[in-house]
Amino acid sequence: MIYAILFSIAALALILGAILGMASIKLKVEADPFAEKIDAVLPQSQCGQCGYPGCKPYAEAIVNGDDITKCIPGGQPTVIKIAEILGVDVPTLDGIEEPETKVAFIDENMCIGCTKCIQACPVDAIIGTNKSLHTIIPDLCTGCELCVAPCPTDCISMIKVGKNLDNWDWKMSPSVIPVKNIDMVAEGEK
């Protein structure tokens, strides 16, 4: 009797599994390839600064005609990549201030080690443990400001990133002649 019950349960599971498998193939929803490409370009910080709950909904909104300049953590390089994907001109920022690049800073004298900022950070740019000091890894911080609000001691502030050799905008005039590596030219001629 037990074997008959086990056999009938196994047969029922096999039949229902086959039905679900066929339904997943038959009812598959195709994703928009442009939305997938745009989503791959976005920084995936899920910060919500664009007005959408994440990067995927923002990518879908861009495909449906929304503005491509709303991603603050991605900045101008992301806007350029999105414009290339869509085959449109890169919008100019006339009259609109380009957003300042900022990173979070924790005043370690005020930090109580509550870990609320760590839980809020979508890119894991904050290190520390419970009841100990926390600090920000500036290279990972996207400046989304999601860690500021949950801090009970207000020890997190956003500071402007100063220009240095690593983040300088090296815009060059088109009249500048590029210099080629002589070794690569010699190898290419052989």
UniProtKB/TrEMBL annotation:
EC category: translocase
Cellular component per GO, a single term: plasma membrane
Cofactor binding annotation: Binds 3 [4Fe-4S] clusters.
Keywords carried by this UniProt record: 4Fe-4S, Cell inner membrane, Cell membrane, Electron transport, Iron, Iron-sulfur, Membrane, Metal-binding, Repeat, Translocase, Transport
UniProt: [4Fe-4S] cluster 3 binding residues: C121, C141, C144, C147
Annotated gene: rnfB
Protein family per UniProt: Belongs to the 4Fe4S bacterial-type ferredoxin family. RnfB subfamily.
Boundaries of every 4Fe-4S domain copy: 30-88
Keyword Cytoplasm: no
Region (Hydrophobic): 1-24
Function, in words: Part of a membrane-bound complex that couples electron transfer with translocation of ions across the membrane.
Predominant cellular place of this UniProt entry's protein: membrane
PROSITE patterns, per the entry: 4FE4S (PS51656), 4FE4S_FER_1 (PS00198), 4FE4S_FER_2 (PS51379)
Enzyme Commission code(s) on record: 7.-.-.-
Superkingdom of this protein's organism: Bacteria
Chain sites annotated for binding [4Fe-4S] cluster 1: C47, C50, C55, C71
Domain 4Fe-4S ferredoxin-type: 102-131, 132-161
InterPro entries: 4Fe-4S_dom, 4Fe4S_Fe-S-bd, 4Fe4S_Fe_S_CS, Elect_transpt_cplx_RnfB/RsxB, RnfB/RsxB_Proteobac, RnfB_subfamily
Name the UniProt record assigns to this protein: Ion-translocating oxidoreductase complex subunit B
GO aspect biological process, one term: electron transport chain
Positions of [4Fe-4S] cluster 2 binding: C111, C114, C117, C151
Subcellular localization, as worded in the UniProt entry: Cell inner membrane
Molecular functions (GO terms): 4 iron, 4 sulfur cluster binding; electron transfer activity; metal ion binding
